[in-house]
Amino acid sequence: MSVKWGLIGASAIARQFMINAIRAQADGKIAAVMSSSPERAQAYAVENNIPLAVSTLDELLGEDVDAVYISTTNELHLEQALAAIEAGKHVLCEKPLALASADARRMVAAARDAGIVLGTNHHLRNAGAHRAMREAVAAGRIGRPIAARVFHSVYLPENLQGWRITKPEAGGGVVLDITVHDADTLRFVLGDDPVEVSAFTQAAGMAGGGLEDGAMCIWRFKSGLIAQSHEGFTTKFAGTGFEVHGSQGSLIASDVMTQRPGGLVLLRTAEGEEQLSFDHEDLYVRSVRQFHAAIHGGGQPAATGEDGVWSLASAEAALQSANSGKAVKIDPKLGSMK
């Protein structure tokens, strides 16, 4: 049985990654694309060999599609996802699911009540490097995890700057763009949940309108582990990385906080240093494959709606901390609370 997709948003991420990922599935087809600009929708459909271009959500949801991929600006996610769920379409939504964790919980509840599969497109969970790290932590290869560090400060390409650095009302800023990913990747690799965050943000020259283009966060997890993360839009030469340090060893990964498969993961213990092997499958191909399996009744998306609530509540708490100058507790059931 094929899965027919509608794209909500004629976006760069869909063009670069998701269209190919859907078409890489034996049962995946793209039926339509929606953009609020009819001209953009039509041009995008022609460029990407998509049969139908529409300019309203109602038109798209009225078509014969089984699932939608939402990659519009952040403030539109909630309304579009709720409408798709009501129309009986499965939803794979870009992060953050909404601008507030309370709204993300509404989305999760609506999907659950309707029997709809809701996934959050946290692509980094699908990286072979992060899955290898998660398996090593779970197997006790570094003993008891004590601390972690994430380096995810990059340079935002000019073609992606736009609303991310100019529009607070659209959910711009580095925290809702990158910190959400780091919070999710920490949860995934560690198998642990953050309970408190203290954050500093900065405007280092790229972002305007009161938005932040850099952030550093200190996280406390349920187990007692502490972690730090650095997110940014303004560092051209930084490189990315992820470290987990335990009582019996350390995992040290480089070039792994990216959309491309690859990077290097080293396990360092008293026995010496070992390079972990892992698959290099396309992150988005794997994400869509798991989403299709969930639609067909086989398991869950790589990142569920609940995972999306967690990452948004974490990012929300980081913004509250930066604004208040105080550590903020994280509770995905209630939204972040001071």
Structurally, the number of domains stands at 2
Q: What's the level 1 CATH class of the largest domain?
A: Alpha Beta
> Whole-number average pLDDT?
95
Task: Let me know the CATH homologous superfamily of the largest domain.
Answer: Dihydrodipicolinate Reductase, domain 2
Structural class by secondary-structure content: alpha/beta
| CATH topology-level fold name of the largest domain | Dihydrodipicolinate Reductase, domain 2
Count of alpha and pi helical runs: 10
The CATH architecture term of the largest domain is 2-Layer Sandwich
In order across it, which strands form the biggest sheet? Answer: 14-13-12-11-7-10-9-8-15
What is the gyration radius calculated from CA atoms?
Answer: 19 Å
What is the 3D form?
globular
Q: Give the H and E element order.
A: EHEHEHEHEHEHEHHEEEEEEEHHE
Q: Return residue spans where pLDDT drops below 50 for at least 5 consecutive residues.
A: none
> Cα distance, first to last residue?
48 Å
How many beta-strand elements?
15
What percent of residues adopt helix (DSSP H or I)?
A: 25-40%
InterPro entries: Gfo/Idh/MocA-like_OxRdtase_N, Gfo/Idh/MocA_oxidoreduct, GFO_IDH_MocA-like_dom, NAD(P)-bd_dom_sf
Organism: Mesorhizobium erdmanii
Protein name: Gfo/Idh/MocA family oxidoreductase
Domain Gfo/Idh/MocA-like oxidoreductase N-terminal: 4-122
